[in-house]
Amino acid sequence: MILELDCGNSFIKWRLVSGAASKACCGGVVGSGEELVLALREQPVTVLGCRLVSVRTDEETSCLVDALERAFAIKCVCARPAAELAGVRNGYEQYERLGLDRWLALVGAYHQVHRACLVLDLGTAVTSDFVDADGGHLGGFICPGVPLMRNQLRTHTRRIRYDDVVAELAMKSLSPGRSTAEAVERGCSLMLQGFVHTQLDLARECLGESFEVFLTGGDASLVADIIPSARVMPDLVFIGLAMACPLG
């Protein structure tokens, strides 16, 4: 089995896939390299290799790679910035500055359809990327996601204090909030929806009326109803990762 890793700033998303079909047999989310090693040792399979994408520092990534190579006697291959990959051209003026997770997600999206697409990643941060029909990346946008907006309000506003259970209950509807928790949670959700509506308008300007929309990230479900035709693909980054780092 091949180990695939998406190493974000806060968490490491992992999955094990068969080398030929890239079909995932198991996976999860952990908070550290130590937790990852423990989780993998519980799996009744043999890890033969590893490919990963990381937005962490070089030192943090190297420590993780060293731990995995020592624990499982495997070689880890890390995704690197590229000006072009699989027919997609990086649209940043300095291509190496585009976040690797964004790059792999938009490459993976274009590879699915080979036509114009809008890629929306709705996680701790929210990103959008526009790819034209010829595989040209036109750029994108970055803004705070719901977790960042919520945490900033909790941190910097003294009277906003409530737990995650209350937050979940507050999202039963989007009517005007009658408590602080409802007002904050529903307000953040509506800001996210407003961002998505704006991206759709911009996509029509940049890409024309015919384009595919891809949704990924933990909060994709919050906007899925807005775009019923969108492709919801939680593992979009892994699709691009397999193309950037072929193994076996």
UniProtKB/TrEMBL annotation:
<dbReference type="GO" id="GO:0046872">
    <property type="term" value="F:metal ion binding"/>
</dbReference>
<feature type="binding site">
    <location>
        <position position="180"/>
    </location>
    <ligand>
        <name>substrate</name>
    </ligand>
</feature>
<dbReference type="GO" id="GO:0005524">
    <property type="term" value="F:ATP binding"/>
</dbReference>
<feature type="binding site">
    <location>
        <position position="92"/>
    </location>
    <ligand>
        <name>substrate</name>
    </ligand>
</feature>
<keyword id="KW-0963">Cytoplasm</keyword>
<keyword id="KW-0173">Coenzyme A biosynthesis</keyword>
<protein>
    <recommendedName>
        <fullName>Type III pantothenate kinase</fullName>
        <ecNumber>2.7.1.33</ecNumber>
    </recommendedName>
</protein>
<dbReference type="GO" id="GO:0005737">
    <property type="term" value="C:cytoplasm"/>
</dbReference>
<comment type="similarity">
    <text>Belongs to the type III pantothenate kinase family.</text>
</comment>
<keyword id="KW-0630">Potassium</keyword>
<comment type="pathway">
    <text>Cofactor biosynthesis; coenzyme A biosynthesis; CoA from (R)-pantothenate: step 1/5.</text>
</comment>
<keyword id="KW-0479">Metal-binding</keyword>
<keyword id="KW-0067">ATP-binding</keyword>
<dbReference type="InterPro" id="IPR043129">
    <property type="entry name" value="ATPase_NBD"/>
</dbReference>
<feature type="binding site">
    <location>
        <begin position="99"/>
        <end position="102"/>
    </location>
    <ligand>
        <name>substrate</name>
    </ligand>
</feature>
<dbReference type="InterPro" id="IPR004619">
    <property type="entry name" value="Type_III_PanK"/>
</dbReference>
<feature type="binding site">
    <location>
        <position position="121"/>
    </location>
    <ligand>
        <name>K(+)</name>
    </ligand>
</feature>
<dbReference type="GO" id="GO:0004594">
    <property type="term" value="F:pantothenate kinase activity"/>
</dbReference>
<comment type="subunit">
    <text>Homodimer.</text>
</comment>
<keyword id="KW-0418">Kinase</keyword>
<feature type="binding site">
    <location>
        <position position="124"/>
    </location>
    <ligand>
        <name>ATP</name>
    </ligand>
</feature>
<keyword id="KW-0547">Nucleotide-binding</keyword>
<comment type="function">
    <text>Catalyzes the phosphorylation of pantothenate (Pan), the first step in CoA biosynthesis.</text>
</comment>
<keyword id="KW-0808">Transferase</keyword>
<feature type="active site" description="Proton acceptor">
    <location>
        <position position="101"/>
    </location>
</feature>
<dbReference type="GO" id="GO:0015937">
    <property type="term" value="P:coenzyme A biosynthetic process"/>
</dbReference>
<feature type="binding site">
    <location>
        <begin position="6"/>
        <end position="13"/>
    </location>
    <ligand>
        <name>ATP</name>
    </ligand>
</feature>
<dbReference type="Pfam" id="PF03309">
    <property type="entry name" value="Pan_kinase"/>
</dbReference>
